[in-house]
Amino acid sequence: MPVLRLALLALLVSFPARAAEVTVFAAASLKTALDEIAAAWQAETGHSATLSYGGSPALAKQIIAAAPVDVFLSASPEWMDAVEQEGLIRDGTREDLLGNRLVLVAHGDKAPLALDGATDLTVLLDGGKLSMAMVDSVPAGQYGRDALTSLGLWDSVKGSVAQSENVRAALQLVALGEAPLGIVYASDALAEPAVSLIAVFPEDSHRRIIYPAAVIADSMSPVAEVFLTYLSSPEARKVFKAQGFLPPGGP
Fold it and tell me: The whole model's pTM is what?
């Protein structure tokens, strides 16, 4: 964490003479943890964060189209790369913030199972849908498709996939019982009591899950970098860990 950003954080926390606001675009899977962290940050500093959640591709495209935003938290490096390639990231602010695990969830209280190439998901689905985020663009959906392909299971279930615009929407289909199974992040499974985490995908079945974060180049918020720095603080890290997130380098 740059020394200058740490000094800025200390200065603004010590002298919150005027409350400021930061607008944050964040991947939908961050909602439960980030809501809690933003509330704690406001209580501590007097500053506030306006949080907008969605699929990383949709958020990135809005930023490229000049949506007014100060900080972007993506669920994959690729969509942060897309924003950076347009020259829209403030130099020196991009960092890998978090990691996660990819999991299989079921509606209700279900027993764990072994997940490998011998798993017959069609039997488990029993004619129902496999809920996933959009497999061609949304990171959770892309990771899920890659994992199923790696395990040799994609061809058997691709016709049964119900795709949603983001991972939290995919989670809700399972929580509501509209799909018996879904592929989401471990943090999503912990946030929803109406689902059971029944299996974790092998780490080598998909790309490592990384959440990069950065300040947008034309941000006018005086606390944009302060908020980004706070996300790496011990207080924020404690919340992220409790919600199932990993450090960016893994466990």
Answer: 0.89
